[in-house]
Amino acid sequence: MRILISIILTIFIGFNIAKADIKVVTTYPYIASIVKEIVKNKATVESLAEGNLDPHFIVPKPSLVVKLRNADLIIINGAGLEIGWLLPLINQASNPKINPSSSGFLDLSQFVNLIQKPETVSRSMGDVHPEGNPHFHLDPYNIPVIADVITNKLCRLDVSNCKFYESNNTDFKERWKKKLKEWNEKLSILKGKKVVGYHKLFDYFIERYNLNLIGTLEPLPGIPPNAKHTENLINIAKSQGLDYIFQDVYHSQKPAKFLAEKTGVRMIILPHDVGSIPEVKDIFGLFDEIVRRLTQ
Ligand SMILES: [Zn+2]
Known about the structure:
By secondary structure, this protein is of the alpha/beta class. About 45% of the residues lie in helices and about 10% in strands.
């Protein structure tokens, strides 16, 4: 009897191990949303950062180390976006599966074309984009590229569910394609319109939809606005014309409001990630809301 129980237990435990979900941790919620589209209920997915925060400056907390300790896979944005906060957390987690050289570490920036790549990598003068512009997920055409990369990685780590992941990815990209068509039609009115942003955050979106970025309130990415620079922007806006002021959810709105007051141009607050505002619950919602705010 004892032997029988032990055999049953062994089979049961073995079965559970075989069925155990893989644990995916992402640095930002937009990545987690794409992963969820692909894994459905076959993996647990958690984001380290919340969507309403400045993605460059996430505060490292012990609770984030706990998430990393149990992860089978970490997926990061890369291109320097996590440079100020992620590595100490990974080191503290001491989980060999997710070391930057391990198969459980995936850097999405390696698979997209980065814009604004400097000739030499430098953080001199506080530039927080030393490797080029890291906000590539705000071009909706990069989302299916990212989904493919994630699917390939999941297939390698969890072979038994590969077909399931691939089929979900195909379905996701089909729905994305339909949405792209809808967004492209609505956004066609933006062509040639002039924009000032706070940070170089929406530059991929701006390039995709042929807007014209005439300046940013930050003199350099990561350097707060100052009076002289803002005065200069006001003069450029007055002489060249300005149609939109893009403001993110996490920087002070004061400089953008001042520019709006001086130029009579509307300031539009745009979400940049899932969860940056309550309406944006997933990756589809992110672009739905950006489009709605720009075209209403
Ligand atoms: Zn940035």
